[in-house]
C-alpha cells in the first residue's frame, strides 16, 4: 500500500540532495553559456580552421550520450594523472555538453535576424563590436530565451546522470533511501515531485523573462 | 542650409556571381540636388544606391563622395574599416523595410548612432533625438517601440535616425514601397522638406509623382545599365528612349483604373 506519511517523510533528504541538482544545473548552464557563446563565435568566424573546430565540437558532443561522456571524462582524468573531484568533473561535463546545444541555439537565433538589422547599424558607421553588442546579441538573446529555458530544464533532468560518478543528487539520494527503507514507490514518486517542482519554477522564470524582454 | 555632398560615379561594375548587375554606370550628382533612380525591378537601382555607401562592394570603377574614393584606397586595394566608417558617418540611409531596431524605443533608435558613433553623452543624444523626431512629426511617439508604430511612422523614425547624424548625403532605397498607400504621403512630405533644405539626396523610387515634382534629375536604369539621366520632364513626359517609353506605359497601365 502507498503510505502518505512515508511519502512525505522521504522528501526531506531529497530536498537536501536537490542542492547538488541545482548546483550542477546552474553551474552547468553558466559554463555552457560561456563556452557555447565562444563556440558559436568560432562557428560564425571567417577563419576556416576555427569554423571546422566548432563544427566538430558540436557534432561530437551532440553525438555522444551525456552518460558516456561523464564516464569517459571521470575515468579518463585519473589515467592522465589529474585528480578532479567528482562534482567538478560533473559540472564540467554537463557544461561542455550543454555548450554544444547552446551554440546551436545562438546560431539559429542570429541567423533568424533580418539582415537589415545589422545593415542599418553598419550604414550609420557603427563598429562591428557595437553592431554585435548593441543590435545583434540583445535581439538574439530575446529570440533564444524559450530555447535556453528549455535547455536548462533538460539539464536539470540530465543532472540525474551524474549519480553514476557518486554525487548524492536527487536521483542517487532516492535510490539510497529506497534501498534502506524498502519503500521504493513512495520515495521515487517524491523524487519525481522534486524534479517537477524545480522545473515548474524554471518554466515560470522563463515566462517572466520572456514577458519582460518582449517588444 | 546644410552642408551637402557631391557624388561622382564612374564606370562602376558589379557582379553577383555570373550575373552582371551594374554595367559601366556613370552618374554625377551635384551638391544639394535630388536624384531619383527609376526603372524596372532587377535593373540595378538598389544595387547602385548600396554601392554609394559601400554596403555593396563594387568590382571596378570609382565612386567618389566629395572627391573621396569610397571603399578603396586605390583601385583594387580595400579601404580600412575605420576609414570606411568615417565616410559612412556623413551618409544617411533609409531602407525599404525601415530596419528599425525593435528592442529600442523610437528615441533610442535615433540616439544609438549619436552615442556609439558620434560619442555623445546619453542626455545630449536623447535631446538631439527628440529634435529629429519632432522634425519628422513624431514628438508624441518618442517612447514607443517600433512594433507600436504604423509603417509610415516607422519610416519617419528611420529618417530621423539618419538625419540626426547630420549627414551631407541621404540615400533612400524605395522608402515607400513597403507602405500601405495611405501612409506614403506622410513619408514623401518629410522627404520633400529635406529636399527643400538643400540636402543631396539619391532616391530609388517607384513614386513617379515624387520624381516629377521634387527631383532635379531622374536617372532611368535597365538591366544594369544607366540608360538616361535628365530633368524629370524629359524622362517622365517626353522620353526618347524606347525602353523608358515601354516602362512608363506599363507604369501608367497599372495605375489607371
From TrEMBL, chain A:
Residues 18-206 form the ABC transmembrane type-1 domain. It is a multi-pass membrane protein. The chain crosses the membrane at residues 20-42, 54-76, 82-102, 188-209. It is found in: Cell inner membrane; Cell membrane. SUPFAM superfamilies: MetI-like. Keywords: Amino-acid transport, Cell membrane, Membrane, Transmembrane, Transmembrane helix, Transport. Its main location: membrane. NCBIfam families: HEQRo_perm_3TM. Belongs to the binding-protein-dependent transport system permease family. HisMQ subfamily. PANTHER family: L-CYSTINE TRANSPORT SYSTEM PERMEASE PROTEIN TCYL, MEMBRANE COMPONENT OF AMINO ACID ABC TRANSPORTER. This is Polar amino acid transport system permease protein. The lineage of its organism: Bacteria, Pseudomonadati, Pseudomonadota, Alphaproteobacteria, Hyphomicrobiales.
From TrEMBL, chain B:
Keywords: ATP-binding, Cell membrane, Membrane, Nucleotide-binding, Transport. One of its GO terms (molecular function) is ATP binding. Pfam families: ABC_tran. It is a peripheral membrane protein. InterPro entries: AAA+_ATPase, ABC_ATPase_HisP-typ, ABC_transporter-like_ATP-bd, ABC_transporter-like_CS, MetN_ABC_transporter-like, P-loop_NTPase. CDD domains: ABC_HisP_GlnQ. It comes from the Bacteria. Residues 7-248 form the ABC transporter domain. It is found in: Cell membrane. Its main location: membrane. Coiled coil: none annotated. Belongs to the ABC transporter superfamily. This is Polar amino acid transport system ATP-binding protein.
